[in-house]
Give the backbone structure.
Amino acid sequence: MRKSLMALAAVASLAAGAAQAESAAYAIDPTHTYATFEIGHFGTSTNRGRFDRKEGTIRFDRAGKTGKVDVTIDVTSINTGFEAFNKHLQSADLFDAAKYPTAKFSSDKFSFNGDKVSVITGTLTLLGKTLPVTLKATEFNCYQNPMNKKEVCGGDFETTIDRTQWGMNYGIDWGFPKDVRLIVQVEATKL
């Protein structure tokens, strides 16, 4: 009986080690990764913008169904297609980019539906304040890139946040909505 328990413990240890060994590092592909936002404008249209500069690391283990992500967004790279609006968004009224030039999303909790990531739960640091955020996957896939012959994993993720929780209150008294939809498109190449 004791030998059986020891053998079972050895197998479990090997299996845990094998699953851990499959964890791999991925580099974010900046040409296929964007963080965008949408917010209503007086109930008539939707203002949209994106952040053009971002960097980060991802660790991902499909077999072990675990992951870790740290992404930093350069708030000064905000791009709405209209320079005056970009400057206002960067001002102390909203993102206060001079004082807080970056935003950061971090997570070490990935949820799966089968073998695909369905939810990433983490924190968003914005305006110096860190709060929980859950990103839901609307798409997720891993594939062998035919051009660089490396594995690429990625997807489309989204959430809606209440910007006032981070102290971004500009325009609330005039009827601007507090809810902002965040859409994150990400692809990362296995190192």
Notes: The first helix runs from residue 2 to 21.
